[in-house]
Amino acid sequence: MKNPRGEATDAPLSYESSGVHYGPLDAFKRACQKAAHGTADLLEGHGYREAPSIRGESAYLIEAESHYLAHVEEGLGTKNLVADAVQTVTGKSYYRGIGVDTVATIVNDLITCGALPISVAMHAAVGTSDWFKDEQRAADLVAGFADGCRSAGAVWGGGETPTLKGLIEPASIVLAGSAIGKIEPKSLRILGDVRAGDRIIFLAASGVQTNGLTLCRRIAERLPEGYLTKLSDGSLYGEALLAPSTIYVAFVRECQRQGIKLNYAAHVTGHGWRKLMRLEEPFVYEIASLRPAPPIFQFLMEAGPVALREAYATFNMGIGFAVYVAPELAERTVAAATASGYQAWLAGTVKKDGQRKAVEVPDLALTFEGDTLKLR
After folding, report:
1. How does strand 155-160 pair with strand 199-204?
2. Most exposed: 220, 247, 353, 363, by fewest CB within 10 Å?
3. Angle of helix 135-152 relative to helix 249-258, nearest 10 degrees?
4. How far is CA 268 from CA 148, 308, 313, 321, in A?
5. CA 230 to centroid of chain Cα atoms
6. What is the radius of gyration, based on Cα positions, of the chain?
């Protein structure tokens, strides 16, 4: 059986088959890091210096005598294309959630170093200014971005709305943004001082959040009812994809308030569970306590079909944020997450195996070796 594109609907899908190739993307990122590090000496003229061991992490840190400043730029990706497609068949605007998503993808990267966001800026580029003539959609985007900023405890500091005819399709908008944050005192920085025996704590995601949507869109093309297809829990596929992302700022803030030291934090987005080994030092991250993947991921795997390994290498599979803490802090960390309104649990242990870096999920017979994640 074939879909309108002439593809066999039972052929397994991957992120690469949907047009996303991490190889050249990550190679470009590494080239940027190398060139960017060569400009670090320019900070001296401003009375700052580059924080050590920060290149390749999710946020950039500038060090002063008494504090760090953090800076992040991130993009939403293609989730808004799903919102547009679902609006076409339901008549509803989903852009309030899209606004939250845009803030979430920015600030969740920022907090991985221990910085709390101060200011967030929006970048909303369109192919034509006619995009803003849908007043409900535009108003929802504004309201959602403001909602996200409030949830993050940050001011909406400004932004840019360029019209880029010829670069962006007339019906589309490209959403991104940046944020600045601060760590003070400097002892609150999440350094990456992980040790063998540290515990891995998972915080649940709301759904796919902002990653893997290109593959999700490909799957929609294979379905006879497209985004109106019902999941096992009765929800619509399109609306399940559009669940607004969870913002994890309150968790990091609560850990700081309680004096709970986070040794490392990972925002689980692109590269799926491979992101659990983002830290440069080689460790083996063994995940021994699994929870069933939410219905949306079960559906994606069956409808794609998407192989188990590909799913965990691409999607968050229900895990939006992970932290590593000393064993004696594990229960307090879970409690701090719960008190802040998150679902969290003790998921695994950090182990040392020479110079090997890997993520192991024994119950699923899955192993991702270090060479499958090349961000530095």
Report:
1. unpaired
2. 363
3. 10
4. 18, 17, 11, 5
5. 26
6. 21
Helix (H) or strand (E) holding 284: strand 284-287
Structure confidence by residue, pLDDT tens digits, 141-174? 999 999 999 999 999 999 999 999 999 999 999 9
Task: Give CA–CA dist 67/155, Å, rounded.
Answer: 20
Report the alpha-carbon distance of residue 89 to residue 347 in Å, rounded.
39
Give the pairing of strands 173-183 and 264-267. unpaired
321 in Cβ contact with 232 (< 8 Å): no
The answer to whether 73 and 177 are in contact (CB under 8 A) is yes
Instruction: Give the DSSP letter string of 211-227.
Output: SSHHHHHHHHHHSTTGG
pLDDT tens digits for 3-12?
544 555 567 8
Q: Which residues contact 9 (CB under 8 A, 6 or more apart)?
A: 1, 2, 3, 222
Tell the burial category of 90 from Cβ atoms under 10 Å away from its Cβ (0-12, 13-18, 19+). Answer: middle
Question: What is the chain's length?
Answer: 376
Kindly tell me if the per-residue pLDDT of 70 is higher than 50: yes
What is the model's pTM?
0.92
Alpha-helix runs per DSSP H in the chain: 22-37, 79-90, 95-110, 135-152, 213-222, 237-241, 249-258, 295-303, 308-314, 330-339
Report in angstroms the alpha-carbon separations of 202 from 35, 151, 180, 223, 241.
34, 20, 25, 32, 21
Residue 120 near residue 154 (C-beta atoms within 8 A): yes
- pLDDT tens, residue by residue, 91-127: 999 999 999 999 999 999 999 999 999 999 999 999 9
Tokens linked to 213? 């949507």
* Maximum alpha-carbon separation in the chain: 64
